[in-house]
Structure formats: C-alpha cells, structure tokens
Write a structure and sequence with these properties.
This protein is of the alpha/beta class. Helices cover 42% and strands 13% of the residues. The protein folds into two domains: 185 residues, P-loop containing nucleotide triphosphate hydrolases (Rossmann fold); 35 residues, no CATH class. A seven-stranded parallel beta sheet has the order 3-4-2-5-6-1-7, sandwiched between helices.
Length: 245
C-alpha cells in the first residue's frame, strides 16, 4: 500500500488513491462539487484540499448535524499536522463568546451551518480570511437552508474563496443540482462510481449474507397500529370518491 505524501499530512497515514488525488488536484483550481458514493472517501478528498489551502488562510467545514461535526473533528485533528487547538468545532451548545475566541485563534473550524449563519448575521466575525469552504452533504444547499446564506456570503466577501461541496446523492433533478451550484458558485463537477477505471482497483468484492429475523412483539404491535391508521385514511378517501392508486 502506498501513502499520501503532502504537506501538512503525517507520513504513512492516508492511503494514496489515484482518483482521490485527481479530484483533489482539480478541486484546488475551481469551486467544485464532488459526487462520490458512500465509502469512497469524500472526506479524504477534503483532507487533501484542506492540507494545501490551510497555509493560505482559515478552513471552514460545514456539516448538518452535531455527530457529523464531531466525526470530522476527530478525523481532521488526527490527519493534519496542526497544533493542538488549531482544529475546533462549533455547535449550538457552544457559547457565542467562546466561539468568537476560538474562531480568531483556530486555523480549521468545523461547525453546523446555523451557528455560522447566526454569527455572521450578528457580526461576530467574517469570512474574509477563509481560504476554503467545505460543505458536507451539500445537496441540502437549496431553499432557506443555512448553507445557501453562507455560500453567498462567503463568495461575496472572502479574499481568496474556494468552495468544495461534497455529496453522495446530489439528486436526479437537473434544476436541483443547478440550484446547488448557483448558491455555492460551483463551476466544476467531479463524479466517480465504483465501475470507473481509476476507482476499480480500490473496490473489493463483498460477501452478503441475508438473515431473516423475527420482530419483537412490540414492533409487530406498532406495525398493526400504523396499518390500522393507514386503512382508516384510505377508507375516508374512498368515501370521497378519491381513487387510491
């Protein structure tokens, strides 16, 4: 096995995969949407890009839930050659004075988007010195979701903006994907599937074993209650001459 050899990444820690390196190198030159199936290493791509950009300015990574933020904190703290305290996380439970102090001192901030949006609106800090915005689960960047506000604010105010959007499921609706790209100012898309030539060497055969399990009595009772509620509603629709498919 060969390992990634890049600045700001410890030696012999991250497996070198050609498709991840190719995607990361491409993402360093343009705002990029990365579409990779679950388990193919979107976070490793983000690490490669962040390791390069962090010498230019602060890195901000957004994730939609606290467990994801905590997971990313562990991964990037372990796999970036940074000082203790350089990688921090913000969630709704972090007091605002503590967030401001941490923002000013940190080099890599990982946060839920609502916290960052609220802080930006309150003027607690800005995004001018953020050299990379990583948006995990970026298919959420539609409508009124906080990703939308942050994406526009970042591209309007950052001195040297670069956006990396990551998702396993961008959606099949072209208008939905176009909206994501518009809000994040995406100009390039990198997509891979398991059958691509540069991915196949890293895909291993899987043995699947199917097991039939008996549901506990409580679950069977819940299923029965839900089916009864559904039957009641279907009956009412039928009485209104609504044809149920």
């Amino acid at each position: 096995m060969s390992y990634v050899s890049r600045k700001n990444i410890p030696e012999n820690t991250i497996e070198a995969r050609s498709y991840q390196t190719a995607i990361a190198d491409s993402a360093l030159s343009a705002n990029t949407l990365v579409v990779l199936p679950t388990g193919m290493g979107k976070t490793a791509v983000a690490l490669l890009v962040a390791a390069d950009r962090i010498d230019t300015g602060k890195v901000l990574m957004l994730a939609p839930t606290k467990p994801l933020v905590e997971q990313h904190l562990r991964y990037f703290s372990k796999n970036l050659l940074l000082e203790e305290g350089d990688v921090v996380m913000f969630t709704g439970s972090t007091p605002s004075p503590k967030r401001v102090a941490a923002w000013n001192a940190a080099r890599f901030v990982i946060a839920t988007p609502e916290v960052i949006k609220n802080d930006l609106i309150a003027g607690r800090y800005g995004l001018e010195d953020v050299s990379l915005l990583i948006v995990d689960e970026c298919h959420r960047t539609v409508g009124n979701y906080a990703y939308v506000f942050i994406g526009h604010r970042y591209n309007e105010t950052a001195a040297h903006p670069l956006v990396l959007g990551m998702t396993a499921s961008p959606g099949s609706d072209c208008e939905h994907v176009a909206e994501i790209c518009e809000h994040l100012s995406i100009t390039s898309v990198e997509s891979r599937v398991e059958t691509d030539a540069d991915v196949r060497p890293y895909v291993h055969e899987r043995d699947l074993e199917y097991m039939m399990l008996e549901l506990p009595e409580d679950l069977w009772l819940a299923v029965s209650v839900l089916n009864g509620m559904l039957d009641d509603r279907l009956t009412k629709l039928a009485e209104l001459n609504y044809r149920v498919p």
